[in-house]
Design a protein that fits this description.
mainly beta; tonb box; 22-stranded antiparallel beta barrel; about 45% strand; Immunoglobulin-like
Length: about 900
């Protein structure tokens, strides 16, 4: 009985100290006394919170809160305010002062916990809600190029790739992109397709970027950097928002008239009793894509002086099917007639994004979230060819449990690609469906190319009645008789048949691959108190399925598991002026040895507004599933990924000759036989020219980096951000070709065997392209300076400049990833959100220097990217009573047609008008 009474007493006591509360209040702007809608009210150190309505009013309800407690009131552009709550029915009146400095944002990415951007231990950039709202570019994602040190490559209106600190590509597997903590890469491509499957502008709250290695906290994909996009919380951003944006592009083009571009977005969020909230998002963008129509002759086998539109062997950059070539005796080198990209690519692009989220507050410090994202669209991608990602679908499911000092998250990412295709292959396959012999009969695709060249030869040599001999245009016209013309029913039928034919016999790209991911972290700092301690980990499983079109996975499924964990400790010393942080991460992929990636950093704060930083960082990148398990026979050569079990039983890595030595051996034997030496003697005399290959299985790439910097605010007006970095890289992933005879390559004496040499001479061999690593070491360094100045009456002027340098050193240029980064990149911006009477404007300018682009699209030969500048501008009018903003703007306002990677389309201007209705709902 005594025990029972004691329990009752304790429960009653707990109820007395932890009570249900219902706080009401009003938030206004100090000075003007105008109500602040959308202001956020949070219980300090809890996840409980709410927002104000259009009248600045709020109601905060919560169960079992212990009095007294503190609420934190924040609003964009205003200084936060803390209010102590001592009554369960307290009424709060808060007037927020306009922020005297808007230059000290809160960021999370650098240390995985909230902190001042001024005191970040590494370089970090942020697009704030204000910057996103006032962005003059067509989408917020286009504005990323204006951040310090950012690089961007446009392959399509719906696909822009971003990167930092060099080694840029059109499909960047070295740069991690997260949306609400979810890796936004497609499982089959192993990189993010820009914002094609990301978030709509209406739902984006902020975007943070870490330039450079971030593997110590974020794992293998964050080798070159990290972009984290955060969407709006359904509790904090309630109400209805609708955006209608219409514009036009393709101005000043001889090959196209101006085309319409349309972007519609919808968002609705609502909470019930501050316990349950949901949000719905839908957006749809559609228009006509940029044209890739650079017809420069890039045939490397023809002297530069002989290239051009009249070259019989012309291989135009953006014409496909003309790569098929033959050296005809008495005629010379001739290429087949190809098709222009516009006739192969689907330029009617679109991007559909659907999103829904449910949020439930289990307790004051525990929230459950379920989020579903569906994306479908069409985009052009410049890789080894120009690919049409047509009707590509990406879906994600996210389930998360979070508190104020921890989270546990699980998600899945699934793709469906069955209408995508390779335009270069498509041009070649269409070319093989219509060729006639000299009798007028259509031949089989297997004989089409040889038959076409035979017709060309016969016509050129005067063996065809009515065709003038020695006339290349006439010979081509004869060979092209019966050619399928774009737009005809026969052409479209041949095109569709090849697109939906996967593997070697067609141009289609098929993938139903997916991956599952779980991660979490816990902040022990409040429990330890002596120092800060953060721990976390992740687990991922790839499940690849291409039905044998890319992997040997028709029956042998390709599954890959990898995991990692990290620990980060921090301590403030010398009256909290010096903050030291150390972190270490260990990652293990089932096919490779584990990798440790430490990071050490120090920040010395002379004052809270003047901070010096230094850091040592490491990075690594696991080979992608394609790098590991591609198993594709493309006729003369088989492409093999570098995971050991991918080549099990083939004896490829163990028993092959280098391709270079085979070429030298073949030339020597051929010359000897031509001089009268009997073949067996010629082979025996030259067999030692053959060199056994020594190709290692693939392993992760490695990076080490050092950075120093200063970030501070002078007189609450001028933000200065200066940094220098130096990075060194090893173990770049590359391909190498080897030749395998049926016999052992070495004899008992350790020299090339006579039997194997004979098989090489007889061409009784197989060729393999293997994925491996280069031991060559290279380095890169750069310096960046960013300045932002707050002028009078709300005007803001900012700019930044980045200088990047690459040092090849003693490395072989063929053994490293190409740098693909301009030496100089600069940005400037000028704007004011409210010049007068609700009118505002913003102008951004970007300029970068010329450089040579290397990529597989042009066989890793250089293509010049000229220096260019871009101006984006917008003016807007806010109508507060109607909760509407009208914006008139332009991306690339001077309509300069520029390419950002060799072979990608030329980008012109986009001119648009938008209406955004955003009404808070409470």
């Amino acid at each position: 009985m005594k025990k029972f009474l004691l329990i009752i007493f304790l429960l009653a006591s707990a109820r007395l100290f932890a009570q249900d509360v219902k706080i009401t209040g009003t938030v206004t702007a100090a000075g003007s006394n105008e109500p602040l809608s959308g202001a956020t009210i949070n219980v300090k150190d809890k996840i409980v919170g709410t927002t104000t309505n259009s009248k600045g009013q709020f109601t905060l309800s919560a169960n079992n809160l212990r009095l007294p407690f503190t609420i934190v009131i924040t609003a964009v552009g205003y200084d936060p305010q803390e209010v102590k709550i001592t009554s369960v029915t307290q009424n709060v009146t808060s007037a927020l002062p306009v922020r005297t400095t808007q230059l000290n944002e809160v960021v999370t990415l650098a240390t995985r916990v909230n902190q001042s951007i001024l005191q970040s231990p590494v370089s970090i950039e942020k697009l704030t809600p204000k910057a996103i709202k006032e962005n003059p570019s067509f989408t917020f994602y286009d504005a990323l190029i204006n951040l310090k040190g950012m690089e961007a490559v446009t392959s399509s209106i719906t696909y822009k790739q971003v990167n930092t600190r060099g080694f840029n590509t059109t499909g960047n597997g070295r740069f991690l992109q997260l949306v609400d903590g979810v890796d936004n890469q497609t499982p089959g491509l192993n990189f993010s397709v820009g914002n094609q499957f990301g978030a709509s502008d209406l739902d984006v709250e902020s975007a943070e970027v870490i330039p450079g290695a971030a593997s110590a906290l974020y794992g293998p994909v964050a080798f070159n950097g990290l972009l984290s996009i955060k969407t709006k919380d359904a509790f904090k951003y309630q109400g209805l928002a609708v955006s209608v944006k219409t514009g036009m592009n393709h101005f000043g083009e001889s090959f196209a008239d101006p085309k319409g571009l349309y972007d519609f977005a919808f968002r609705f969020a609502k909470s019930f009793n501050d316990k349950f909230a949901f949000k719905l998002n839908a957006s749809y963008l559609t228009g006509t894509d940029w044209y890739a129509n650079d017809y420069t002759d890039i045939n490397a086998s023809i002297p530069a002086a002989n290239r051009g539109p009249n070259n019989p062997a012309r291989d135009a950059l953006n014409i496909y099917g003309d790569e098929v070539t033959k050296n005809i005796t008495g005629v010379g080198v001739v290429n087949r007639t190809g098709y222009e990209e516009k006739d192969l690519m689907n330029y009617g692009v679109y991007s559909l994004k659907l999103n829904g989220a449910l949020q439930y507050r289990i307790t004051n410090n525990l929230e459950a979230i379920y989020q579903y994202n569906y994306g479908k669209g069409t985009a052009s991608y410049t890789g080894s060819s120009r690919f049409d990602l047509n009707n590509f679908v990406l879906q994600t499911h996210r389930l998360e449990l979070k508190g104020s000092n921890f989270f546990l998250r699980g998600y899945s990412v699934q793709e469906n690609s069955h209408d995508s295709y390779n335009t270069r292959s498509l041009g070649q396959f269409i070319n093989r469906t219509w060729v006639q012999d000299l009798s007028g009969n259509v031949v089989t695709p297997a004989n089409a190319d040889n038959t076409w060249f035979n017709r060309y030869e016969a016509a050129f040599k005067g063996n065809v009645s009515g065709v003038t001999a020695g006339n290349h245009p006439a010979a081509r016209a004869l060979a092209d008789q019966g050619r399928l013309l774009p737009g005809t029913a026969a052409y479209e039928a041949a095109k569709d048949a090849s697109i939906h034919n996967y593997g070697l016999s067609g141009a289609g790209v098929f993938s139903n691959s997916k991956f599952y991911h779980a991660d979490g972290q816990y902040d022990f700092s409040k429990h330890i108190k002596v120092f800060e301690l953060l721990a976390g980990g992740s687990l991922r499983e790839y499940r690849m399925f291409t039905n044998g079109s890319l992997f040997d996975d028709a029956t042998n499924r390709v599954n890959i598991t990898e995991w990692g964990s990290f620990l980060q400790a921090g301590k403030k010393l010398f009256d909290e002026k010096l903050k030291l942080t150390a972190s270490i991460r260990y990652d293990k992929n089932e096919n490779f040895k584990g990798s440790f990636t430490p990071r050490f950093s120090g920040v010395y704060s002379v004052t809270s507004m003047h901070n010096f930083r230094a850091s040592y960082q490491t990075g690594f990148r696991n080979p992608t599933p394609v790098d590991q398990f591609i198993h594709l026979n493309v006729g003369p050569i088989t492409i093999l990924g570098g995971a050991p079990r991918n080549s099990a039983g083939l004896n490829v890595y163990e028993n092959t000759f280098t391709s270079a030595s085979v070429n030298a051996f073949g030339a020597a034997v051929g010359a000897a036989i031509g001089a009268g030496t009997p073949p067996p003697t010629a082979i025996a005399n030259n067999k030692n020219l053959l060199v056994k290959s020594n190709v290692a299985y693939i392993k992760p790439e490695q990076q080490k980096a050092f950075e120093i910097g200063y970030k501070g605010v002078i007189n609450e007006k001028l933000l200065v951000d200066l940094n220098y970095y130096h990075s060194s890289y090893t173990d770049f992933i590359l391909n190498t070709v080897v030749i395998q005879p049926p016999s052992a390559v070495l004899g008992a004496d350790g020299t090339p065997s006579m039997q194997a040499a004979g098989e090489v001479a007889a061409r009784n061999v197989k060729a393999y392209q293997l994925y491996t690593n280069a031991s060559d070491k290279v380095s890169a360094h750069g310096v960046s300076l960013g300045l932002t100045y707050l002028l009078e009456r709300g005007y803001v002027l900012g700019g930044n400049a980045t200088k990047s340098n690459f040092n090849l050193g003693n490395a072989n240029a063929n053994n490293i990833a190409q740098y693909n980064t301009p030496e100089w990149s600069t940005n400037m911006n000028f704007g004011n959100p409210n010049v007068a009477n609700g009118f505002g404007f913003n102008i951004n300018w970007h300029w970068q220097s010329q450089f040579d682009w290397y990529g597989t699209f042009n066989g890793n030969r250089p293509g010049r990217i000229a220096a260019y500048s871009l101006f984006d501008a917008q003016v807007n009018k806010k109508l507060p009573a109607q909760h509407t903003t009208i914006k008139l703007g332009a991306s690339n306002i001077f309509n300069k047609h520029i390419s950002q990677s060799y072979g990608s389309p030329a980008i012109g201007g986009i001119y648009y008008v938008s209406l955004v209705f955003d009404s808070p709902l409470k």
